[in-house]
Amino acid sequence: MRALIWLIGIFALAAGVAMLASVNDGYVLVVVPPWRVQLSLNLLIVGLIIAFVSAYAVLRVIRRTMALPGRVVQYRERRRKEKAGRALRDALRALFEGRFAQAVKFAGAAFSDGDNRSMAALVAARAAHAMRDDTRYRIWLGKSAEQEDESRVARLMTEAELAVEGRRFEEAAEHLENLRLAGHRHIAALRLSLRVASALARWDEVLRTARQLHKHKAMSEDQVRSVLRRAHLERMRELAGDAEGLAAYWREIPADELNDRRLVERAVPYLAETGQGALARRTLERLLDAEWDSGLARLYGYCCEGDAVDCLARGEKWLRMYPKDAGLLFALGRLCLNAQLWGKAQSYLEASLNLAPSIETHLALAGLLERLERGDEAQGHYRAAAQRSAA
């Protein structure tokens, strides 16, 4: 339809021009002594148009001819870039397929011919590292470093990741610190930082990084709870001989992290060993009131130094709800020992021992019986504890 409209338009234009030419009686006289030429005005107009078109065509030909060397250079450059781009894509595919030697080969071609020289060098470095070829790995990293402005962040991330894979954690930490100083703290870098800090036993850094990852929703609740638990326990283990330091550290733990029952269960013995068990008393009471746990109840006996009577009243209140809980009975026995209620202590410990025999219960009873000068019975419990320990 469009072609038909154009055709009709052209014919209409031609008809219009022919009608104008038929009524135009003008002429042009050209005098070039000794010649005189008389032309019709219509012929002159047609001649001028033809001359203009011819001159324009000649100039276009000349211009294209002169631009031909440049166009050839552009064509070759375009072909070079296309070839390098294909080589880089082939290198990436070979790297992901596990054909590392081919990846190095293709990446080398892309590095020689392409503009993405840094990316090609990093691909070659990864492939060489996967082949355990440390020499070529270092060479390609050096070539990538030469393109500093283009790929610094990518290079540092690659070096950090490959250093972690090679268990060179100090080297990885250095690269990650350079990234941090440059303001790059994205999720991938934080994850690497968490692995490195954990491997280097930098537990304060582990805590900070894990909290950041959880804030950015890069770790689930279960994952961050496990990481935080380990970091807290390792840090408390390091402070095990420092009662004041351990107490200060416990107070700094956020309340929401103390909702982790496994953390509290494993942390209380560290506190108790340094005489700081009372710090965990309120936490244990809150957790036990929210949901009963025999393991936590067992630890309650270590958390009431200096206030055994009040704790004993709280424990006996729980006992009315859980009369057959061996952990709670053991805790009540220890509380009675602290309050010097020897008879009640013995009855609670023996009740706990009947429900669930344990080394701790045997030892607590043995210590009590020695105080009561019942050495033979105490020796029996010591032997029972030793047998359980050896089993």
Automatic annotation (TrEMBL):
The keyword Cell inner membrane applies. Pathway: Porphyrin-containing compound metabolism; protoheme biosynthesis. InterPro entries: Heme_biosyn_assoc_TPR_pro, HemY_N, TPR-like_helical_dom_sf. Involved in a late step of protoheme IX synthesis. It is a multi-pass membrane protein. Residues 26-131 form the HemY N-terminal domain. This is Heme biosynthesis protein HemY. It holds the Pfam family HemY_N. It is found in: Cell inner membrane. Keywords: Cell inner membrane, Cell membrane, Membrane, Porphyrin biosynthesis, Transmembrane, Transmembrane helix. The keyword Mitochondrion does not apply. SUPFAM superfamilies: TPR-like (SSF48452). The chain crosses the membrane at residues 39-59. It comes from the Bacteria. It comes from Aromatoleum toluolicum.
